């Protein structure tokens, strides 16, 4: 039986979510914008899911815009805010952000915006004095920071970042894609103005995400046509996926503590085991991290090679973000934390789900020990 | 309720559902298709097979298909991406595009947005039947024209544009041609090997595939170049980032493969039903058929019958046909109950545009349903006309 | 056997109209016109085709009292319901009572939402046209 240790890349669909989606996949086929009865049933299902997802992250239903996924949410947040600004100023984003934020910021740079990374320390945590200085140096329009990193699992103090951003007159966007469902996320309490979430990271379907937008944030739509989502995002609503996201969010809220406890126990077992394997370095080991994520390197192994060797042994892990896999470049996250390239090249990420078992952890550890000896020999 | 709104959205074909299911089950192929491990490779293989299936229906190469979240995104990406790549208007550089007043809302909305950025847009007025001739397009072209965007089949009236004759003439002039084929795929023959379209938008849920997935055809030879509109991760040859929803693209692939295999039968079935409904209503006084009549000179897509009814008001007409799912105008604008902008663009008077219904037929529609609908329409029309002080028999 | 009108009244209400509006629209009692040369008929009209609403109200008056009524309407279901309601309500009324009916009362009686307020005004206008004629030449 293959072992799946890549839950930060994507999660399997929860059978309860699939169950909820089935009637909408097969039966109720109204275009939600049509006025007839099929259309009205679709509209009701979409609004019910909007309440579920909003409640999950502590937002108001009216603040939620459906998107095709987190990449679109992050793009819409950065470009939508920038396009609404009366004049171009600066955007700050964390050095370890997901490529969706990073590349959206670079697109803004091409359009004439000042964009700067926010430096992080060796643990991947925002360097607060530098960040504060950046905020006061010149006007900042928007700060984008992830609540938890997809590779290292490092958790940022986004509330602090938001307070400082607001004091400098900037808006705050939080990429909560990896954090939501694993740690407590509360849009209202976070002080954020915008927040991205995704369904397929929390046992929901792929192809659906959301952007939460605070009531007084001006956001210019990036996808136009049809007037859906109050004109903020055009396109026929992806009804089955929206329904699935609703249920997945509800379950993620109800079961968050149990899932976190289960994955943390597995992670601790894994880390205890890794400490017994010589030549292993766990990255950001002492930083606050997601309960399910460990990123480490094994001396003598490039991450890509170790990933492939583990894959041959029937264990699916990642060498970083799924998007950047195979690019041949070391993780920008680890480089951002100041790690030397040769160590960053070694990165392998294990991201656990509550369905994983102690036995799988033990098998992983024994495979890893065997591979270490193979490299040494 | 009888569903005659297949141009708005179609039910998922059972065969498509079966194809998608393995990617939705917990023990199935759930991995991220961008992951470089075994499960990821298997998901990616399914994505690539689907890409080939979509390409095959339109005579394209698999590598020319970019996955999107739907036709709206495809249209946005095509227009904004192409113009951004070629350079937006600036001092000393004018940019012009040509489109038609009867295009889908998302093309028109995108064009209006581009106008705010300095792009000049010509909105061509089609003839009374919805046809824009290639000559009309060529007459509108200026030295600044970068792109023409025209839909192959109109969603409200089923008018079919002569893309095959237009495309080579634009190619000769070095002007990009984008075609919105969301309503055309599977309904009219499309072979991009012989028709030099540069960009073409496709939708999954208009052809018995899932919602939330679409595609943009981007020609490789000569290469149509786009600036991406969604950044992050470099998926889809850098043209569109974001984790692919494996089950959805697999579903769209299966839907397009079925549409290719069943093309002749589908077209015969749905055009037969369309004609059957018209035969049962055409003798009524004051009923007008909008759009082309389907003759050789006026080609018509097989799935749409658009009618206007004299002497009655549109909202009451739709309300009185409560148990028939039809639409007035495109689904996107029907909630507003405004007269169809498409019919108005064709010069139809406001009252007739308001009292119009679009019937659209599909694979699951049966003849007995069409007969029931004909009876209902006749009954309700008579009732509303008895009520109407404007109706003079 | 169910009549057409009953079938219609029972049919689903697709746009979420108020219950009363929907029933009056589907049943439309007193819809139609009086036969030609019916004595004592006063006809009032309001609205225009361009505004998608025309209401025509015909009241048969005998000795200053409405004894029968008909209406015709071209417009949305709410405007049809307004015509149907007034035609029914008017029976037995005298000119002073007819003149006292306001759009506000129509909105309350039929629970007409804000965005359909114009339908109530249409009803008031048609009735006023009748009242004006009744005052000119008492029947």
Detail the topology: elements first, then pairings:
The complex is a heterotrimer of chains A (377), B (393) and C (139).
Chain A: E1 3-4, H1 15-26, H2 37-56, E2 64-67, H3 70-84, E3 90-94, H4 99-110, E4 114-118, H5 128-137, E5 140-146, H6 158-167, E6 171-175, H7 187-190, E7 194-198, E8 209-213, H8 239-276, E9 280-282, E10 293-298, H9 303-312, E11 315-316, H10 332-336, H11 341-344, E12 348-351, H12 358-376
Parallel strand pairs in A: 1-11, 3-4, 3-5, 5-6, 6-7
Antiparallel strand pairs in A: 2-8, 7-8, 9-10, 10-12
Helix pairs in contact in A: 1-8, 2-8, 3-4, 8-12
Chain B: E1 2-3, H1 14-20, H2 38-58, E2 65-68, H3 71-86, E3 96-100, H4 105-116, E4 120-124, H5 134-140, E5 145-151, H6 163-172, E6 176-180, E7 199-203, E8 214-218, H7 246-261, H8 263-281, E9 287-290, E10 304-309, H9 314-320, E11 324-325, H10 331-334, H11 341-345, H12 350-354, E12 356-360, H13 367-387
Parallel strand pairs in B: 1-11, 3-4, 3-5, 5-6, 6-7
Antiparallel strand pairs in B: 2-8, 7-8, 9-10, 10-12
Chain C: H1 4-10, H2 19-27, E1 41-48, E2 53-62, E3 65-74, H3 77-90, H4 95-99, H5 103-110, H6 117-136
Antiparallel strand pairs in C: 1-2, 2-3
Helix pairs in contact in C: 1-2, 2-3, 3-6, 5-6
Can you describe this structure?
The complex is a heterotrimer of chains A (377), B (393) and C (139). Chain A has helices spanning 15-26, 37-56, 70-84, 99-110, 128-137, 158-167, 187-190, 239-276, 303-312, 332-336, 341-344, 358-376; strands at residues 3-4, 64-67, 90-94, 114-118, 140-146, 171-175, 194-198, 209-213, 280-282, 293-298, 315-316, 348-351. Chain A has 377 residues and is α/β, with parallel strands linked by helices. In chain A, the strands form three sheets. A seven-stranded mixed β-sheet of chain A has the order 2-8-7-6-5-3-4, with helices on both faces. A three-stranded antiparallel β-sheet of chain A has the order 9-10-12. A two-stranded parallel sheet of chain A has the order 1-11. The radius of gyration of chain A is 21 Å and the shape is globular. Chain A starts with a strand and ends with a helix. The relative contact order of chain A is 0.17. Chain B is α/β, with parallel strands linked by helices. Chain B has 13 helices and twelve strands. In chain B, helix 2 runs parallel beside helix 7, helix 3 runs parallel beside helix 4 and helix 8 packs parallel to helix 13. Chain B is globular, with a radius of gyration of 22 Å. In chain B, 61% of the residues are buried. Chain C has helices spanning 4-10, 19-27, 77-90, 95-99, 103-110, 117-136, and strands spanning 41-48, 53-62, 65-74. In chain C, strands 1-2-3 form a three-stranded antiparallel β-sheet. In chain C, helix 3 runs parallel beside helix 6 and helix 5 packs across helix 6 (117-136). The longest helix of chain C has 20 residues, at 117-136. Chain C starts with a helix and ends with a helix. Classes of the chains: A alpha/beta (377), B alpha/beta (393), C alpha+beta (139).
């Amino acid at each position: 039986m293959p072992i799946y240790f890549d839950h930060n890349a994507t999660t399997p669909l929860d059978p309860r979510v699939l169950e909820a989606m089935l009637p909408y996949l097969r039966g109720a086929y109204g275009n939600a914008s049509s006025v007839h009865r099929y259309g009205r049933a679709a509209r009701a299902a979409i609004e019910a899911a909007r309440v579920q997802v909003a409640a999950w992250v502590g937002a108001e239903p009216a603040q939620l815009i459906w998107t095709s996924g987190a990449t679109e949410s992050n793009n819409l947040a950065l470009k939508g805010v920038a396009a609404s600004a009366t004049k171009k100023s600066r955007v700050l984003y964390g050095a370890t952000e997901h490529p969706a934020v990073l590349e959206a910021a670079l697109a803004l740079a091409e359009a004439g915006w000042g964009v700067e990374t926010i430096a992080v320390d060796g643990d991947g945590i925002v360097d607060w004095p530098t960040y504060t200085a950046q905020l006061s140096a010149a006007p900042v329009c928007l700060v984008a920071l992830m609540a938890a990193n997809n590779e290292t699992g490092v958790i940022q103090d986004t509330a602090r970042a938001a307070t400082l951003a607001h004091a400098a007159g900037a808006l705050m966007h939080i990429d909560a894609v990896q954090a939501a469902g694993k740690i407590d996320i509360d849009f209202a309490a976070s002080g954020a103005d915008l927040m991205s979430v995704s369904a397929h990271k929390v046992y929901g379907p792929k192809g659906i995400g959301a952007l939460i937008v605070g009531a007084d944030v001006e956001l210019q739509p990036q996808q136009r046509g049809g007037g859906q989502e109050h004109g903020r995002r055009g396109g026929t609503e992806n009804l089955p996926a929206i329904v699935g996201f609703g249920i997945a969010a509800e379950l993620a809220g109800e079961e968050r503590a149990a899932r976190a406890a289960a994955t943390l126990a597995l992670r601790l077992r894994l880390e205890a085991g890794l400490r017994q394997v010589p030549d292993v370095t766990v990255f950001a080991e002492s930083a606050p991290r997601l309960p399910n994520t460990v990123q480490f390197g094994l001396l003598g192994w490039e991450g890509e090679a170790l990933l492939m060797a583990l894959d041959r042994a029937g264990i699916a892990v990642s060498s970083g973000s799924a998007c950047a896999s195979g690019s041949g470049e070391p993780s920008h996250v680890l480089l951002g934390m100041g790690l030397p390239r040769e160590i960053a090249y070694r990165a392998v990420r294990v991201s656990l789900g509550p369905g994983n078992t102690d036995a799988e952890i033990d098998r992983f550890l024994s495979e890893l020990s065997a591979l270490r000896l193979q490299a040494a020999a | 309720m009888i569903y005659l709104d297949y141009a708005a959205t179609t039910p998922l074909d059972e065969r498509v559902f079966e194809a998608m299911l393995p990617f939705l089950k917990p023990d199935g192929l759930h991995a991220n298709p961008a992951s470089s491990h075994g499960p990821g490779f298997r998901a990616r293989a399914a994505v690539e097979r689907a890409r080939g299936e979509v390409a095959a229906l339109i005579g394209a190469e698999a590598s020319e298909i970019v996955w999107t979240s739907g036709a709206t995104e495809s249209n946005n990406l095509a227009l904004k991406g192409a113009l951004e790549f070629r350079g937006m208007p600036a001092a000393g550089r004018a940019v012009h595009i040509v489109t038609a007043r009867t295009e889908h809302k998302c093309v028109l909305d995108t064009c209006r947005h581009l106008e705010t950025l300095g792009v000049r847009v010509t909105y061509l007025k089609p003839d009374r039947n919805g046809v824009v001739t290639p000559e009309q397009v060529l007459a509108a072209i200026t030295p600044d024209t970068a792109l023409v965007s025209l839909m192959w089949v109109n969603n409200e009236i089923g008018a079919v544009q002569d893309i095959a004759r237009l495309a080579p003439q634009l190619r000769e002039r070095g002007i990009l041609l984008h075609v919105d084929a969301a309503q055309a795929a599977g309904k009219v023959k499309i072979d991009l090997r012989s028709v030099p379209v540069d960009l073409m938008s496709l939708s999954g849920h208009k052809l018995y595939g899932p919602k939330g997935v679409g595609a943009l055809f981007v020609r490789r030879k000569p290469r149509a170049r786009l600036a991406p509109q969604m950044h992050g991760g470099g998926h889809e040859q850098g043209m569109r980032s974001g984790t692919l929803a494996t089950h959805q693209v697999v579903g769209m692939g299966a839907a397009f493969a079925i549409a290719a295999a069943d093309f002749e039968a589908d077209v015969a079935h749905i055009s037969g039903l369309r004609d059957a409904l018209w035969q049962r209503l055409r003798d009524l006084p004051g009923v007008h058929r909008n759009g082309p009549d389907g003759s050789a000179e006026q080609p018509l897509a097989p799935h749409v019958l658009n009618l206007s009814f004299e002497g009655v008001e549109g909202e009451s007409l739709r309300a009185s046909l409560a148990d028939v799912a039809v639409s007035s105008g495109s689904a996107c604008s029907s909630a507003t109950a405004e007269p169809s902008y498409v019919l108005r663009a064709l010069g139809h008077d406001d009252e007739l545009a308001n009292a119009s219904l679009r019937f659209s037929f599909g694979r699951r529609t049966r003849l007995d349903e069409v007969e029931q609908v004909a009876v209902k329409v006749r009954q309700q029309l008579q009732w509303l006309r008895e009520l109407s002080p404007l109706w003079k028999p | 056997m169910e009549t057409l009108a009953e079938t219609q009244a029972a049919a689903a209400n697709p746009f979420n109209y108020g219950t009363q509006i929907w029933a009056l629209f589907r049943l439309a009692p007193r819809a139609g016109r009086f036969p030609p040369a019916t004595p004592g008929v006063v006809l009032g009209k309001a609205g225009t085709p361009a505004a998608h609403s025309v209401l025509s109200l015909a009241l048969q008056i005998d000795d200053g009292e409405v004894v029968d009524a008909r209406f015709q309407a071209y417009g949305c279901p709410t405007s049809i319901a307004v015509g149907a309601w007034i035609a029914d309500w008017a029976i037995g009324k005298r000119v002073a009572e007819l003149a006292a009916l306001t759009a506000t009362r129509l909105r309350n009686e039929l629970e007409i939402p804000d965005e359909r307020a114009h339908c109530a005004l249409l009803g008031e206008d048609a009735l006023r046209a009748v009242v004006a004629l009744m005052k000119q030449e008492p029947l």
